[in-house]
Design brief:
Blueprint lengths: L3 E5 L2 E5 L24 H5 L23 H7 L3 E4 L12 H10 L3 E8 L5 E3 L20 H5 L47 H7 L4 E6 L11 H17 L6 E4 L3 H10 L4 E2 L3 H10 L9 E4 L2 E2 L2 E2 L6 H7 L3 E4 L4 H4 L2 H6 L7 E4 L2 H10 L5
Parallel strand pairs: 3-4, 3-13, 4-6, 6-7, 7-8, 9-12, 12-13
Antiparallel strand pairs: 1-2, 4-5, 10-11
Length: 366
C-alpha cells in the first residue's frame, strides 16, 4: 500500500493516501520484481462471448450518501469496499463491486491506470500476473487484450496463495464460460473493467480512486505516464458528471497537485509529503484535501494513537479513513469494530460485508 514514514521526535508516523495492497503482505509486491514479458495468453486470447446472467442480479440499495458533502453530513462511519472487497471476491471486478454494493457498502475504492491504447482501467498492479491467467504489464496491453483476461483466475479463500489445488480457485473459468457464473452474473463481470463502466454502473456511490504510477522500462516510476492517467481520470470525472462524488488520491503529492490543477473541484486525499508536512510542519493542505487515509499500524507504531494526530484532523474538519495493512490479523469484523473506539469516519475493508454486518449489529450504521 501507499506508505508514509516520517520521524515524530523518536517515533515514526505512518500515513497513506489510500488503501491499495491487493494481498496485504501475503505476497511480495510485483512492482519490485522483474516484469515478465506478455505471454501468448494475453496477446492472442479472444474476448469471451458475452453471456446473459442466469437470473436477475440482486437489487442495490441506495447508499446513505451519494456525494462527498453528503458523506460528511452523515456524522457516522462509512464502509468503503477496498477493490470491491478483495478478501471476499475477485479483486476489482464488476462482480465484486456489485456484491459489495448489495451488502450496503456506501463507498467503492479502486486503483486506475492506462492501457497501451489509453483506456483508463481499474487495476492495481503494474502487471496482470497476480489476478489473471496471463503475464505482462498493463501499459503494454491494449484495452481488448486486458478485457479478454480472467480476473477471477487466482482468487481463493486464501487470497494471495498461488499453490492451492485448482478447485480452490472457485471463480477460475467463469470469464471464459467454462464455469457457470454465479446467479445474476455473466462472464463479463469477471473481466478487467474500465473506470467509466464502474462509475456509470454505480451512479449513487461515492468512488475513492487512486491514481497508480506505473514503472517505466528502466524500473523507475514513470511520472509522465501517471500524469496522462491523471488527465484521463479528470476528463472522465467531468464527462460523467461525477465531480462531487469522487475522491482522488495518490501516495505521490506531485501527482495529486497536478490532478488538482486539472480538476480543482474534485475532493482529494493528501499523499506522502503533504501529510507529513501538515502534521509535523504545520503546512496547510490543499483546499481539496478532505479525507486522510491511513493504516492502523506500521513498524510497531499505532498510527491512531500518535499524540495529537486525531485531534488535529478533527480541529481542521478532516475525516479519517483507515485501511487495514495486515490481512491476516486486521481483515475481520472484530478488528473493524475495534477501530470504532478512535471515532474513525470510514473503514476501507477487504471484507466490506463483514464490516457492514458488524456495524449494523452495533447500531453504528443503519
Amino acid at each position: 500500500m501507499c506508505r508514509l514514514v516520517s520521524t515524530l521526535f523518536a517515533c515514526t508516523l505512518i500515513a497513506s493516501a489510500c488503501g491499495d495492497d491487493q494481498s496485504a503482505d501475503t505476497v511480495a509486491d510485483p512492482t519490485t520484481t522483474t516484469v515478465a514479458p506478455v505471454t501468448e495468453a494475453s496477446t492472442t486470447t479472444a474476448a469471451p462471448t458475452t453471456v446473459a446472467p442466469t437470473t436477475v442480479a440482486p437489487t442495490i440499495p441506495t447508499p446513505g450518501a451519494s456525494t462527498v458533502d453528503e458523506l460528511f453530513g452523515l456524522d457516522r462511519p462509512v464502509v468503503i469496499a477496498h477493490a470491491g472487497g478483495d478478501q471476499t471476491w475477485p479483486h476489482s471486478t464488476m462482480f465484486a463491486y456489485r456484491e459489495a454494493a448489495v451488502t450496503g457498502t456506501e463507498v467503492l475504492e479502486m486503483d486506475v491506470q492506462l492501457t497501451a491504447d489509453g483506456v483508463l482501467v481499474v487495476q492495481h498492479d503494474d502487471t496482470v500476473d497476480r489476478t489473471t491467467e496471463a503475464s505482462g504489464r498493463v501499459r503494454d496491453l491494449t484495452y481488448d487484450e486486458m478485457q479478454a483476461l480472467d480476473s477471477g483466475y487466482w482468487w481463493s479463500g486464501e487470497w494471495g496463495n498461488f499453490d492451492l489445488p485448482d478447485e480452490d480457485y472457485i471463480y477460475r473459468g467463469v470469464r471464459s464460460g467454462d464455469v457457470e457464473a454465479p446467479a445474476g452474473y455473466s462472464p463479463d463481470d469477471f473481466r478487467v473493467e474500465t473506470f467509466e463502466a464502474i462509475a456509470t454502473s454505480f451512479p449513487d456511490h461515492v468512488l475513492d480512486v487512486e491514481i497508480k504510477i506505473p514503472r517505466g522500462d528502466d524500473g523507475e516510476s514513470d511520472m509522465t505516464f501517471a500524469l496522462e492517467g491523471a488527465q484521463a481520470l479528470a476528463d472522465a470525472i467531468e464527462r460523467l458528471d461525477r465531480t462531487d462524488s469522487v475522491i482522488v488520491v495518490s501516495f505521490n503529492d506531485d501527482i495529486i497537485a497536478a490532478f488538482h490543477e486539472m480538476a480543482p473541484d474534485v475532493a482529494t486525499s493528501p499523499g506522502t509529503s503533504a501529510l507529513t508536512d501538515w502534521f509535523l510542519g504545520g503546512i496547510p493542505l490543499l483546499d481539496s484535501h478532505r479525507i486522510l487515509q491511513v493504516p492502523p499500524q506500521f513498524d510497531g507504531l499505532d498510527v491512531l494513537t500518535i499524540p495529537g494526530f486525531l485531534e488535529k484532523a478533527e480541529d481542521e474538519g478532516l475525516d479519517i479513513w483507515v485501511w487495514p495493512n495486515d490481512a491476516s490479523t486486521q481483515e475481520n469484523a472484530d478488528f473493524y469494530e475495534s477501530l470504532l473506539e478512535f471515532d474513525i469516519d470510514g473503514i476501507i475493508a477487504g471484507r466490506p460485508a463483514d464490516a457492514v454486518e458488524r456495524y449494523r449489529e452495533l447500531g453504528v450504521i443503519p
